[in-house]
Every structure is written in C-alpha cells, then in structure tokens.
Amino acid sequence: MLAILPPIIEINHYDAPRVWSSAHTAMQGTRMLEATMRETALLKAGALQNAILTSANFSIIATDEKGIIQLFNVGAERMLGYRAAEVVDKISPSDIHDPHEVMARAEALSLELKTTIAPGFEALAFKASREIEDSYELTYIRKDGSRFPAIVSITALRDDAERIIGYLLIGTDNSVRKLVDSKLNEAMAAADKANRAKTDFLSSMSHELRTPLNAILGFAQLMETGAPAPTLSQKRNLEQILKAGWYLLELINEVLDLALIESGKVTLSREPVSLAEVMLECRAMIEPQALQRGIVMTFPRFELPQFISADRTRLKQVLINLLFNAVKYNRPQGSVAVECAPGLPPGSLRISVRDTGAGLAKEQLAQLFQPFNRIGKETGAEEGTGIGLVVTKRLVELMDGTIGVDSAVGVGSAFWVEMRLASAPMLSFGDAEHAALPQTVRQGSRPLRTVLYVEDNPANLDLVEQLIARRPDLRLLSAPDGRLGVEFARVYQPDLILMDINLPGISGIEAMQILRAEPGTAHIPIIALSANAVPHDVERSLEAGFFSYLTKPIKVERFMEALDMALKSSHKALA
C-alpha cells in the first residue's frame, strides 16, 4: 500500500555461519550471539517504524529532495481523504495546503534568507535545508475541498554524506484546539461586554439615584442653615431627612464601590502617604460622632514622620470605615484606640483600631468580610449594609496590604491592616511654595465676580442659586444646555463655570473642550458638577481638562471650598 523512497531503515540478513576450526569455536559463538542481538534490535526498530507509519493519529508525509511525495501514511489518508496511490510520485505537500499560506510563507522565507524562492514546497524545503526543524500552523485542504487547521513539523532527511535526500512532514489535526480557543475567545469577549454593560449600568443608576438625592439633601441643608432658623420640631424633621438621605447615599456608594472592585475597574495611585496627615483628617471626620455617643478616641503621636505606600483616598476610606464601625458598634461611654506598631513581614506597619464593644464569637469571625452579612446585627438599632468591611478588605488587598481582626466576646475587637512602609517624598520648590500658600481666601473688598452654571435640571439650578445667594461677592448666570453655555461664556466672560456633564445637545465635556480651545475662554476654570460618581467617569472628566469634579448630592461646605479654590485660580490667571 505504501511506496517508500528512500527506505528509512535497511534490515541486514546474515549468511549461514562458516565452518571454523575448533580453535575458533568460542569466538564464532560470540560473534553469532552479537549478530543475533543486532538482528533482534533491527527487527524491533522495524516494528516501531511500522507502528509509526501505520498510525491513524498522525499524518506522515515523506518527499524526495525535489519535494515530491514518496510516502503517505494511513494517518495522512484518514486526515486528507486521499489514497497513497493518488499522491505518491504525483504531487508535493504544497498542493494540499492553502495556496495563500504557501505564497505568504515563501515570501517570508525569501526575505529572511535574502534570496528568491519560488512559491511552493521549495520554501519549506529550503528552510529545512538549513538544518532547522520547522514547526508551524497551516491549513490543509482535503480531497473533497474541505479545510482544517493543522500543526506540521518538517525535518530534512540526510544520507551518510549529509546530502538532503528528502523531507519528512508530521502533522496533527488542530481543529479541536482551534475550536476550544475560539469558544474561549468568544466567552472572554462576552465577559468583557458584560463587564462594560455592568459598568455603564452602574454609572447610569448612580446618576439616576444621585440626582433626586441632590435635591433632597441640598434643600434640607439650606433649610437647616437658613434664616430664620427652623423651629425645634422643624429641626428634628430636617435631621431625620438628612440622616436618611446621607445613609441612602452611603448605601449607593458602597454598592457601587463593591461592584467596581469586583469588575476590576478600580484604579489606584500608589504614593508615599503621610500617616500623621491621614490620621488627622480621619479624626476630624469621626471624633464628633464619637463624642455624641460619649466615646473617647485616642490616636498615636508620631515623633518622626511615617509614610506608607498606598492610595491616599482609598487609605482614608479604609481607616474611616474601621473607625466608624468601632464607634457604631461600641458600648455607651466606651473607647476607641488607634495604635501603630511594626508589622510582619519587616518593612510594614500595622495600624490597629481597638474598641470596647461586645466582641465577636468564633463563628461570627468566620462570617466576617462576606457581602451583606451583618453577623447578627440585622435586628439591632444600628443601620448598616454589610458591605463596608468587604469593600475595605478588597481595597487593602489591592494596595498589597493585609487585614485581620482579633476579638473576644465581652472585651471588644481590634481590626488591623498592615501596609508597606515607604520613604518620604521629595518636595520640589514649586510644591513647597504651594504648600506654604494660605488655605483661606480673603473676601474683603473684592469686586462682584460672575459664576456661570450650565444645568438643565430646574431643582439643581434652584439649589445652586440659593447657595450662591449666600455669597455677597458672587452673582450667578445660568444656561440650560451646553451650546448656550458656550455662548454665554464667550459673551459674559465669567470668572468661574459650573458645568453639568449630562446635558441636552452637547455634553458638558464637549462644551468644556470647546471653551478650552478658544483663547478668549481657555483661562476660565470649569468645575464639573455631576451625579456621575463612578471613578472612571471622574478620572475621564479630570483628564479632559476640568479644574475639579464635584459629585451630587452637593455638600455645602465642600462646594463653597471648591468655589474659593477655582476663583483664586481664576484671579491668578488674570493677574
């Protein structure tokens, strides 16, 4: 069935032993034994060769030095649909390959070898003649015209004088692997698409939830601090509105954070962070709540500056969450102690937040850091979502840190995080000069300055109008869409622009880019004021050129600080 040229293995046959003299009988026996062993080895090699050549799992094709097929095994017949008699001495392997692939391979080899090679099997032969065993992917074409991917290894066959006498191609069907790869790529594409859809949905839902909350919390803050002062009953009602509103905002933020972390969309900036500064900021935020409950808080004193490698914003989020929980789940008149000590491994710092609360049993400790699991606190007086600790843990791990807890029932709990220490950052002259600038803005005898607010939501516009009305040094202009906002900026040359992002017509980002591109308006600071709170949206807007980014619902104090900073920048630009 097979035509084999040249033979790969030649089996030698030995003549009958001659009659030797009795003096050589022993030597003759030894030689006969060696001959028998050689013959047995050759027979075994022949059996191995026969097994390989008749295997149905591999296509084995051998050619002569001109590239014409001389051997076509059972596996090749099964894969390609030809009988050996149809191809032996008639065609070359390139005749059953995809012609475009053959041409591309010939051209690639021509460039590599800096010579002219005719398309066809000669390209493969020339590659093999350089004593390089070549393995590559190609498309085989069956007798019926169908195609399938294969992996082929080609080797030059040489005689005793190292002359090339042919080529050996061993191929395997690659269809299954290709199919698996294709399915895997499809699954990955579907997962990416689902992640993008999830992120878009979260961004949209965050915006839709924050927009009404902006009105609720904004106007409640105005009523709480307005004149005349609210009555006692009105004040209690406002406190309930604000408490519920801020809690709902916290829930939205935590769910959004968790979803973004799980989808891998959270980006962190690693930098040396001053622990003393972060502690001071966290203390200022948490201590008033602790004092309301009669809880004493103690913080470490740093004789020397300590810096850790972290994302400053996310580190504050971690510490505030641990401090808030320590206050919330503490006993009345209890205490919270923040401690710092060397961590493990060396070169890290352990920050512990120790409380005098009820403590946690072993079975409760096993349930920590599980989403929406409040470990028995669901029916208590304290509100919660069961998400905060999960977000905290994952943020710590994203910053290459570790988190844990030590607790005893009736004694209290100590939640700790370990972060890597970092060297103190080097301040440039410009940074030092900026750091020395006063943080407050004098408002003495300034002329009236103009703020342009581009916003299509009447409730949001009304809120900002009332906030600006509290500033005697400011006047407000408003525009209901991006295009009109651009025209107002050109005509009135405001000192500051507040820009919503989701506007009818053109977006706030597009309007900002138009203003930045024009010399007459490029100097005006533009603050984004939007309900889009997804970090990706914030980063994209800041990279696009906004001076700063405020999220709705508006916090009045932060809003006023942002106005002062932007107006100060505007004044410098004009000076």
Give a verbal description of the structure:
Helix content is 46%, strand content 19%. It folds into four domains: 22-173, Beta-Lactamase (2-Layer Sandwich); 186-262, Orthogonal Bundle (Helix Hairpins); 271-420, 2-Layer Sandwich (Heat Shock Protein 90); 446-574, Rossmann fold (3-Layer(aba) Sandwich), CATH 3.40.50.2300. It has 17 helices and 17 strands. The protein is elongated. It has helices at residues 25-53, 74-80, 84-87, 99-113, 121-129, 175-225, 232-262, 275-292, 312-328, 362-365, 388-398, 429-435, 458-469, 482-492, 508-517, 535-544, 556-574; strands spanning 59-64, 69-72, 134-141, 147-158, 164-173, 271-274, 296-298, 307-310, 335-342, 348-355, 402-408, 412-420, 449-454, 474-479, 496-499, 526-530, 548-551. With 575 residues, the protein is α/β, with parallel strands linked by helices. The strands form four sheets. Strands 2-1-5-4-3 form a five-stranded antiparallel sheet.
- Structural domains: how many: 4
- Name of the CATH architecture of the largest domain: 2-Layer Sandwich
* SS strand fraction: 15-25%
Which ranges are low-confidence, i.e. pLDDT below 50, for 5 or more consecutive residues?
1-23, 118-123, 125-131, 427-445
Structural class: alpha/beta
* CATH class annotation of the largest domain: Alpha Beta
Distance between the termini: 96 Å
DSSP helix fraction:
40-55%
Oligomer: single chain
The biggest sheet, with number of strands, parallel, antiparallel or mixed sense and barrel status, is: 5 strands, antiparallel
Q: What average pLDDT do the residues reach?
A: 78
CATH topology call of the largest domain: Beta-Lactamase
Q: For the largest sheet, list the strands in their spatial order.
A: 2-1-5-4-3
**Name of the CATH superfamily of the largest domain:** PAS domain
- Calculate Rg over CA atoms: 40 Å
Count of DSSP-assigned helices = 17
Q: What's the number of extended β-strand segments?
A: 17
Tell me, briefly, the overall form. elongated
